[in-house]
Amino acid sequence: KSINFQPYIFEPVFVKQKQMEHKEVDDEFSDITLRLFDLSDIDDFMEWATDDQVSRFCSWETYTSKEAATNHIVDVVIPHPWYRAICLKDRAIGAISVTPNEGNDICRAELGYVLGSKYWGKGIVSRAVQMVASTVFIEWPHLERLEALVDVNNPGSQRVLEKAGFQREGVLRKYFLQKGKSRDAVIFSLLSTDPKVNSFM
């Protein structure tokens, strides 16, 4: 679902902050990369897409067949304008996407992410979000706002965004339907002009 303060006096502070942020990711899981999905990732995809814990707050239902998962990769993931595998040693342990808007809403895009449950709580997604924020505003110069909607009952995902420098803006009541129920959502945003963005680059 994006930086370098100009005043020299702040530079040591942000160097130290960057070091602290990197330490928040366990050393064992610090080698995180983002890349395009490929059909060869299907087995890794199935490992977390078949997990009810993972799909609980997702718009999609837990996958039960490799054929359905393969069709999803072919029909949705690969054609998507910005959809990447979150990789550890080149294995797809999750996914992250930025979905653009059109027309008068072209200045903003929505961030989404998912991660295998055995990798939760290790700082991986926060790092992946920072990696996205460090590039997407450059790749899409028209983009000014990256936003994310999180279920109010999903505090883990809210912490991910807060650690990545997103600003919590408020709660949107009964904002969307998920698995047949209307849900309240917390909305977060990161702007291309936010100082935090330069610290990711």
UniProtKB/TrEMBL annotation:
GO terms for molecular function: acyltransferase activity, transferring groups other than amino-acyl groups. It comes from Davidia involucrata. This is Putative N-acetyltransferase p20. Residues 32-184 form the N-acetyltransferase domain. Keywords: Transferase. It comes from the Eukaryota. The keyword Nucleus does not apply. It holds the Pfam family Acetyltransf_3.
